[in-house]
What does this fold into?
Amino acid sequence: MDSPFMNRIAAEAGTAAMAVVRFEFPYMAARRRTGKRTAPDREPSLRAAWMEVIEQLGGAARLIIGGKSMGGRVASMMADEVGAAGLVCLGYPFHPPGRPQHPRIEHLRTLRTPALIIQGTRDSLGNRDEVAGYQLSRKIKIAWIDDGDHSFKPTRRSGRTLEQNLAEAADLVIEFVSRLSRDLEVPGAIR
It folds into this structure.
């Protein structure tokens, strides 16, 4: 929850007068305490962690939920179920590493929650060419970060910097959340 990536996005969103709430899944909290890397929690535990945060914040109807990679994926699986006002996914894992033939998009085909997915054009978990072939809900807007990988890091030859790509991603989040907040009169919050 406090990676340089999340710190930058949260700081930028915070300057736009948005409330940003971050949390860790149990396996990440354990990693922080023990220093030992373990496999991610199973889906029920990930969902329970999300539900606890949503309940602490008074329910999802006034929240825009989301996250980075798996955090965004879990949020996307729960958005309709919990009645979230919106969804933001940063570097969505459209398929497992090295397995584009196994897309993780079934729930994204029928998503009813307004959503923004920000993806690097070189993301190994779903690049522009792969994602273009997916049938996704019309509620999903995909924004592309030029030459970005899964964490939006560009190649040196691109002439872009990670700072530029993170600033662009933050601007996209702010624009999306601001528009939804105006339309729905909802304060924004992202994981």
Q: What stands out?
A: The domain at 4-184 is CATH 3.40.50.1820 (Rossmann fold).
